[in-house]
Design a protein that fits this description.
Layout (H helix, E strand, L loop, with lengths): L1 H5 L1 H46 L7 H25 L3 H7 L6 H21 L25 H21 L3 E7 L31 E12 L1 H12 L5 E10 L5 H6 L39 E12 L2 H5 L2
Antiparallel strand pairs: 1-2, 2-4, 3-4
Helix pairs in contact: 5-6, 6-7
Length: 320
């Protein structure tokens, strides 16, 4: 004790250093325990991950049942959509009765061409001389035996398109073509403008899902003729989808438009009413001017590209 009293300062410093040492030891031991706990937790997570990734987890029987029911429901809906796209029963029946020989196919096409020439003329629709409606290649002989069903199917589809065009009563029909055929002539295309091919970005064809048959029809008329044609296609008696419409204004006017400066507006979907008798020049009120449309209706040539859509069966689409 005497030594400690003589060296009091040294003793105080020694005590303080001892205290600091004890605190450091406690701190290090505490951090070590925390690190050990974190390491054990990490190792446990690693083991759990390895156990889960290496384990084969089988679905529950109820999950399998519910999944199968959902698959069956979706297949049923897809088949319903496909049946709707295939068209009405009478049109489907026509597809199922193609000619059996080249001679029969030739006479079928010849009869079709003659019938629609008569229909067009009877409806007041002008058509080119010797028009074959896309089947000029078979004007002297029928298609090859292995293509009879394919050509017959296209003939049925074209007949449906022509029916709708003629019902719309345009002024003239330049023609209708299938893919790979020369385009009908028209304003800006005196030679037909090359062969018709629907660009891939406009086509609805999808591998193993849907096949399409493209067509192009060109007719001259006014906007209400195009609208009537589009409305007829919208009834969806046959799965035909319009992919592109090109309009070329011809600038021609009817004799009535040339006299009045335009055609009076007509109610949509109503028959034209008889014109009221016009007063003579003497009977007209002074200062009253004749009503003239600001923008007279002009003639235009409409080039409509469309596709017949055939959705493949579900089994074929899924690769079963």
């Amino acid at each position: 004790m005497t030594w400690l009293k003589k060296n009091l300062l040294f003793t105080i410093i020694l005590v303080l250093l001892s205290a600091v040492l004890v605190v450091e030891i406690i701190y290090v031991l505490g951090r070590r325990a925390h690190a050990t706990e974190a390491e054990e937790e990490f190792n446990a997570k690693v083991e759990e991950y390895q156990r889960l990734t290496g384990k084969s987890i089988l679905p529950h029987d109820r999950n399998v049942t519910f999944t199968q029911r959902e698959i069956d429901l979706q297949l049923e809906r897809a088949n319903q959509y496909r049946e709707a796209l295939r068209g009405r029963e009478e049109l489907r029946a026509k597809f199922d009765s193609p000619p059996t020989s080249r001679a029969d196919a030739f006479f079928d096409i010849a009869s079709f061409v003659e019938d629609y020439r008569v229909k067009a003329v009877a409806a007041g629709v002008e058509i080119p001389a010797n028009e074959h409606f896309g089947f000029a290649a078979y004007s002297t002989s029928g298609p090859d035996q292995d293509r009879i069903a394919e050509v017959f199917r296209q003939r049925v589809i074209i007949a449906h398109i022509l029916d709708k065009v003629i019902e719309a009563r345009p002024v003239s029909l330049a023609g209708i073509v299938r893919a790979g055929q020369a385009r009908p002539s028209g304003p800006g295309r005196p030679d037909g403008g090359g062969s018709f091919q629907l660009p891939s970005e406009q086509s609805l064809a999808a591998s193993n899902i849907a096949e399409t048959i493209p067509f192009q029809v060109v007719f001259t008329g006014r906007t209400h003729n195009l609208r009537a044609f589009m409305n007829a296609l919208a009834e969806f008696e046959m799965p035909l989808v319009v992919r592109h419409i090109d309009v070329t204004t011809t600038g021609a006017q009817t004799s009535e438009q040339q006299q009045t400066g335009g055609e009076p507006r007509r109610g949509r979907g109503r028959a034209a009413e008889p014109a009221a008798p016009q007063p003579s020049e003497e009977e007209q009120e002074p200062g009253r001017e004749e009503n003239i449309l600001i923008i007279p209706e002009t003639m235009a040539t409409f080039t409509v590209s469309l596709e017949y859509l055939d959705v493949l069966p579900i089994q074929a689409a899924s690769g079963r």
